[in-house]
Amino acid sequence: MKIKRSFKTSLFILIFSLVVIPAANAKGVEVLWLGHAATRITSVEGKVIVIDPFLKGNPKTPGKYKDLKSLGKVDVILITHGHGDHIADVSELAKMNNAKIVANAELVKQMAALGWLDKKQIIGMNKSGTVTPVGDKVKIHMVRAEHSSSLDISKHVGKGSASIVSAGEPVGYVVELENGFSIYHSGDTGVFGDMALIGDIYKPDVAMICIGGHYTMDGEKAAYAMKQLMKPKKIIPIHYGTFPILKGNPVQLKKALGKTSIEVLEIKPGESLLF
Question: What are the structural domains, with CATH classification, of the chain?
Answer without folding.
Answer: 24-265 (3.60.15.10)
